[in-house]
Amino acid sequence: MDRRIFTLGAAGVLMVLAGLPFSVARAHGAGVVSGVSSGSLVEYQDEAYDEDDEMMSWLMAMSIERASADMYLDLMAFDEDQAEMARMMYREYLGQYRDAAETVKGVYEKLQESMDYEDEEQMQKVWRDMSKVSSRFMERGIQLGDRFVGDLEALAFNDEQRAGHARVARARQRELARGLMATNYGDTPADLMLLSQKLRDPVDLTNQDDPTAAALLAYENEVAGASERFVTQTLASVRAQMEAMANADMDDEDMWEEYSKTYEQIQKSSEEIKAISDRYAQRIAGTLEGARRRDWDKAYNAALYPTVYAPGEFEKLRDAVLKFDSLTDEQRTNIASIEEHYEREAVAMNARWAAALDAAQKVSENWDYSADGDYEKFYEEYQKAEEESTAAAKARRDLDERFAERIRALLTAEQRDKLPKEETFDLDAVLRELEGDDGG
């Protein structure tokens, strides 16, 4: 077996962060970062770290989002005093997690700087040190999250709240499963419970007379078992791998072969969670109508394909314009009509782009990374998929530009002057600055 195709958990993070030459990093690296969705982590974690810091994105992947913490409070039906205490506990938890992540980041950077790629023995030592740090960080992160969830139970003062805590515990397992998937595979299913709370009109999870809430409860119960199996299997494998990597020869083929035996089982559990999420996403969509259905579909697709469904030029312009107090009723009606036409055309554009990304990912996943792999065939297939993805992305951008121009055409000169200015830079000035004082 070629060990480059098999990396799990914190080991996978370690390899990518360390910049080590493992092909799995090339195959899944971009997907992992987008799967973690660092933008939403920043949004829901009070700017816990710089969203452009990919290393921190990796390290924060297994932390509890603020949106999840807010959902925990709703599930337990806390009063305002209890909720304020819980928020204080969450801030303490997040601060401790972030501190640990920043410490580990600094250690990784120092170890990476110390690595001598021409000294095999020294590289082995760096690997072992990184493995020890990765293992300790993973355990610390899980410990902090479990402690926070456990402390919430201590705040409960009646049977209803204690029953709500059982749902919180299931939510914690789902989030931990998603965090492990993000650091392992880069393809993370949406948590439908959490997604339902991020809608413009959140679902009342306590109202079981609501068919949407009932469908979410059924999802919650069914996905709980799959999440628990995945977390148990993955943590056991990661812990064993970290221990072995900290003590064994990194070229020990028996060690890598042993890990590969558990990979297929873990993958099956991962696919089970994804299948449950997909099935219930459709069921939940069937309980919604009109704007709520469109809101759900868009939120679900955005969770799966954040790059595709991130707000583009049209949506950003529309949102800015709708804040203008000077808009007339006629302008607002026309903008609504333009938006309706845009969304109809964007459905096919976005689906094409998402399909192209799936095709490129599939090529990477199916590629034989061993020495016997047909590199030329792989490159040809991947290049074709990348070209389609690029073309699909351009088509969506062109659509955005075309419909954004329609909105601009509705505005008065005074209103256009109030539009957010595009960020530009003076290339000549940059070049002059780079020349230095001596002009050289």
Quick overview:
This protein is mostly helical. 77% of the residues lie in helices and 0% in strands.
Describe this structure in words.
This protein is mostly helical and 440 residues long. The chain folds into two domains: 3-300, no CATH class; 311-440, Four Helix Bundle (Hemerythrin (Met), subunit A) (Up-down Bundle). It has 18 helices and no strands. Helix 6 (80-114) runs antiparallel to helix 7, helix 8 packs across helix 10 (211-247) and helix 10 packs antiparallel against helix 11 (253-286). It is globular and about 70 Å long. The protein starts with 8 loop residues before the first helix and ends in a 5-residue tail after the last helix. The relative contact order is 0.09. Residues 1-49 have low confidence and may be disordered.
| Helix proportion | over 70%
Helix and strand succession? HHHHHHHHHHHHHHHHHH
Overall number of strands? 0
Counting DSSP H or I runs of 4 or more residues, the number of helices is 18
Task: Give the DSSP E fraction (strand runs of 2 or more residues).
Answer: under 5%
Largest sheet: none
Mean pLDDT: 79
**Contiguous runs where pLDDT drops below 50 for at least 5 residues:** 1-49
Domains, number: 2
